[in-house]
Design a protein that fits this description.
The complex is a heterodimer of chains A (about 325) and B (about 280). Chain A is an all-alpha fold. Chain A has a domain at about 100-285: MetI-like fold (Orthogonal Bundle), CATH 1.10.3720.10. Chain A contains 14 helices and no strands. Chain A has helices at about 1-25, 35-40, 45-55, 60-75, 85-120, 125-140, 145-160, 180-190, 195-230, 235-240, 245-275, 280-285, 290-300, 305-330. In chain A, helix 8 (about 180-190) packs across helix 9 (about 195-230). By secondary structure, chain B is mainly alpha-helical. Classes of the chains: A mainly alpha (about 325), B mainly alpha (about 280). The interface between A and B is large, with 49 and 46 residues.
Chain lengths: ~325, ~280
């Protein structure tokens, strides 16, 4: 297993370098010159020249590439043109919001998805199975941006149960401790004896988390069901039943434990997707995370911010997948590489 | 008379037994018919504005599904939108299949350094979250429906290439390929007339599922303003233009969203059914 892990770690390095390289060259897809695009059509040639020199765009591409890679390795992603702040700092201030949303939504998706999958598998071809499987197909077919808006119409606008967006009530100001507002709010309960921050953070995160949970929930339910179906047909399950064990114990402590492996893998993969692909959900719910920020950067052609943001998110995605593989090797005693 | 016992017939019999797959096929056929006859079926011009009838409720004033903020008939826009979404799906999936198919065939058949390099590149592309890559490509090329199709086509390349490569690897060691080679068939002939037809099953399944993905991604890009531009009756764009009226006019976003949902569901059901019939090995 040690050798497998070493190999897996080693393979991540060229992938990350490749991703950063691809991000660098994506800029050249753009027909215009970034400096001119940024300054607008009416900028004087001199102003464009100055900005090009400042960004090093007047250098040969190979040199630009080496300089960029060198900086990225030192975590220097340049400065955002719009705010003038270092891109890495902009990313790190927004990343906790995205991670928090992803964690809560993957927890919702995992709990409900596993439950639905197990019920569907143990009552195969029943009404519950049918509903779970049709539901999961609808779940992967639903446009998430539309679902988000429908949730807002029903639960925020009409029923007035949840806010339409943001992370906290407008009048509240919280000094971030961890950057995860639900956790920070929880700490505030003890520090300030004030429940309102925690409740407000929780209140704000529920709708976006539910919207973001839809696709992973559907996928997790399907994977759980097929893993359970495969295991429920094995001899040791029959033995367990023959011993007279209660069905609940057969399902959860005999079958489900062994069905857990593919389920863990898919949860990890979906978590990675959530972390990276929450652009639509974050935009709809005005969630100040990295997806929302990246979208604004794309629209305002803030190219260093886009490059840095895409590189950061992709590396995070690669590392999550690495973690999933390591976890898989760890929990599966049959795998010995 | 004995019915022809061909493989295709067997597969059709099997497919017919799968009720959800038949349902999916029905939805897909229905959407193609709606798209084809949109100009006959649509009660109004999809881009004609009726400023006196802005945001009319469904079933009022002769508008079955109501009107949008510019008084355009939503039903007509959805019908014409079917043309756009199905076309976008067809073109982007074709891009993925042509590029991914060639890449997969070549790298699987020849192996060696080419294969190694191609697979590394594919791993790198798969390391990107796909919607993010589509957004960046689309933004770099400039927002338009055409560029959205290119972006979606490109992000579909790695998965097609992988599937084709895997089936080529399995097929090329088969005896019939060795036999043809010993008869003096050229590489090109072996690839296209011997190996490719036998890789079709997983390719068809993947293409159907990718079609569903392309429709939903194109709608997402248009929703973000990176795809279809006004006044195109594109479903995702329709949802986006209705989002300012969600507190007063629910119908503006609801119906185009349902159209996306059903079209994507149809292709997903069909793809799942085809997988069960054509390629039992791929079954989860």
């Amino acid at each position: 297993m040690g050798r497998y892990l070493a190999k897996r770690f080693f393979l991540v390095i060229p992938t990350i370098l490749g991703v950063v390289t691809l991000v660098f060259f994506l800029r050249f897809l753009s027909p215009g010159d970034p400096a001119r695009l940024m300054l607008g059509e009416r900028a004087t040639p001199d102003a464009v020249k100055v900005l090009r020199a400042e960004w090093g765009l007047d250098r040969p591409k190979a040199e630009q590439y080496m300089v960029y890679m060198g900086k990225v390795l030192r975590l220097d992603l340049g400065r955002s043109y719009k705010t003038g702040d270092p891109v890495i700092r902009e990313i790190l201030t927004r990343f906790p919001a995205t991670v928090e949303l992803s964690i809560i939504s993957i927890v919702i998706a995992s709990v409900l998805g596993i439950l639905a999958g197990v019920v569907a598998a143990t009552r195969r071809n029943s009404l519950a199975d049918f509903v779970a499987m049709v539901g999961s197909l609808v779940g992967v077919s639903i446009p998430i941006f539309w679902l988000g808006l429908i949730l807002i119409i029903v639960f925020a606008v009409n029923l007035n149960l949840f806010p339409t967006g943001g992370r906290l009530d407008g009048r509240m100001l919280m000094e971030p401790i961890t950057g995860f507002y639900t956790l920070d709010g929880f700490i505030y309960i003890f520090k300030e004896h004030d429940f309102s921050y925690f409740l407000s953070a929780l209140h704000h995160i529920i709708l976006p988390a539910v919207a973001l949970a839809t696709v992973p929930l559907a996928v997790i339910a399907r994977v759980t069901r097929s893993a359970m179906l495969e295991i429920m047909g094995q001899d040791y399950i029959r033995t367990a039943r023959a011993k007279g064990l209660p069905e609940r114990s057969v399902i959860w402590s005999h079958a489900f434990r062994n069905a857990l492996l593919p389920v863990i893998t898919i949860i990890g993969i979906e978590f990675g997707y959530n972390l990276a692909g929450a652009v639509l959900t974050e935009t709809i719910f005005a969630w100040p995370g990295i997806g929302n920020w990246l979208y604004t950067a794309v629209l305002s052609r803030d190219y260093l911010a886009v490059q840095g943001g895409v590189a950061f998110v992709s590396v995070a995605f690669i590392l999550i997948n690495l973690l999933v593989d390591v976890l898989y090797a760890y929990v599966n005693p049959r795998i010995r590489y | 008379m004995i019915k022809e016992e061909s493989l295709l017939y067997d597969q059709w019999v099997q497919f017919k037994k799968n009720r959800s797959a038949v349902f999916g096929l029905g939805i897909v056929v229905l959407f193609f018919l709606l798209a084809l006859f949109a100009s006959l079926l649509a009660p109004a011009d999809p881009i004609a504005q009726h400023l006196e009838a802005q945001l009319t409720q469904p079933m009022h004033g002769g508008f079955l599904l109501g009107t949008d903020d510019l008084g355009r008939d939503i039903l007509s826009r959805i019908l014409f939108g079917a043309r756009i979404s199905l076309l976008v799906g067809a073109i982007s999936v074709s891009i993925s299949i042509v590029i991914g198919g060639v890449v997969g065939l070549v790298s699987g058949y020849f192996g060696g350094v080419v294969d190694l390099l191609v697979m590394r590149l594919i791993d790198i592309m798969l390391a990107f979250p796909s919607i993010l890559l589509a957004i960046v490509i689309c933004a770099a090329l400039g927002p338009s429906l055409q560029n959205a199709m290119i972006a979606i086509g490109v992000i579909g390349v790695p998965s097609i290439a992988r599937i084709v490569r895997a089936s080529v690897l399995a097929e090329k060691e088969m005896d019939y390929v060795t036999a043809e080679r010993s008869l003096g068939a050229s590489n090109l002939r072996l690839i296209f007339s011997a190996i490719l037809p036998n890789c079709m099953a997983p390719l068809i399944v993947q293409a159907t599922l990718a079609y569903a993905g392309a429709i939903i991604s194109a709608a997402g890009l248009s929703f973000l303003g990176l795809g279809a531009q006004p006044p195109t009756p594109e479903w995702g764009f329709m949802v986006s233009s209705g989002k300012e009226y969600i507190s007063t006019a629910w119908w503006v976003i609801t119906f185009p969203g349902l159209a996306i949902l059903f079209a994507v569901l149809g292709f997903n059901l069909l793809g799942d059914g085809l997988r069960d019939v054509l390629d039992p090995r791929m079954k989860e």
